[in-house]
Design a protein that fits this description.
By secondary structure, this protein is of the alpha+beta class. Helices cover 53% and strands 13% of the residues. It folds into 2 domains: 33-96, no CATH class; 97-233, no CATH class. The strands form 2 sheets. Strands 4-3-5-6-7 form a 5-stranded antiparallel beta sheet, covered by helices on one side. A two-stranded antiparallel sheet has the order 1-2. Strand 5 (215-219) and strand 6 (225-229) form a beta hairpin. Helix 4 runs antiparallel to helix 6 (157-178).
């Protein structure tokens, strides 16, 4: 049977068409809104991840270790860890005494120490922190929050270790810097006689009674750190 024509659907018109148009527009609008909300949600997640990465990156420093240059997260470096048995990890955990590493510690402590004080209800930092020959913490006699700070450091060994490490590393850096004039002249020596003369000239550096620079961690009232040797900043 031949089909001479096909009954088509007439165009929608009138009020009904308008209603469908509104309905279709509303659906499209809702789809767009949902897509926008989804995109915003994804953006928030991405921003959150990026914020976490940024926060983490601010605690990660490129530092020289006994195993070479490593990216060190100082937020976790001083936290208690399990026993390290392999040699590479042991060497990688040893920070070399140089100005760059010292600057990294100074910068990181300046970031975290103010929050540490605030979290422990301590209104202001001590003017200085020093350590005696046995490694015991020394605070100024007139610092009114000495007991609170000592207790807070006892309860937060990571912060205590970082401060102690900064002072210890500074002591080694200062000692090495005091040897630089001798090393420079020794490199130019042309004979054993010249070397003997240099050893005699710098004998005060090698005697058992030699004096070492006095290291102090100096803090602003807010807790920003400046590491000093004999009262002079070690990092320009």
């Amino acid at each position: 049977m031949a089909i001479s024509s096909v009954q088509g659907y007439a165009p929608v018109s009138g009020a009904y068409g308008s209603m469908l148009g509104i309905s279709a527009g509303s659906m499209e609008g809702e789809r767009a809104a949902m897509a926008g909300r989804s995109a915003a949600s994804v953006d928030r997640v991405q921003l959150s991840v990026e914020a976490q990465q940024l926060s983490r990156s601010e605690s990660v420093y490129s530092m020289e270790t006994a195993a070479g240059k490593r990216e060190v997260d100082l937020d976790s470096y001083f936290s208690p860890a399990g026993e390290v048995t392999d040699l590479d990890s042991q060497l990688g955990s040893l920070l070399m005494p140089n100005p760059a590493n010292l600057r990294a510690l100074q910068d990181h402590i300046s970031k975290v120490f103010p929050d540490f004080l605030s979290a422990n209800g301590i209104p202001e930092a001590p003017q200085t922190i020093r350590y005696d020959d046995s490694g015991q913490l020394q605070l100024p006699d007139d610092y009114p929050y000495a007991d609170q700070l000592t207790a807070a450091l006892d309860e937060n060994p990571a912060m205590a270790r970082e401060l102690h490490t900064a002072a210890g590393l500074a002591s080694h850096v200062a000692a090495l810097q005091s040897l630089e004039p001798f090393n420079e002249e020794a490199a130019r020596a042309q004979s054993q006689a010249e070397m003997d003369a240099l050893v005699d000239k710098y004998s005060y550096l090698f005697g058992a009674d030699r004096s070492y620079p006095s290291i102090a961690l100096h803090f602003s009232g807010e807790g920003a750190l400046s590491i000093k040797a004999d009262g002079e900043s070690m990092l320009a």
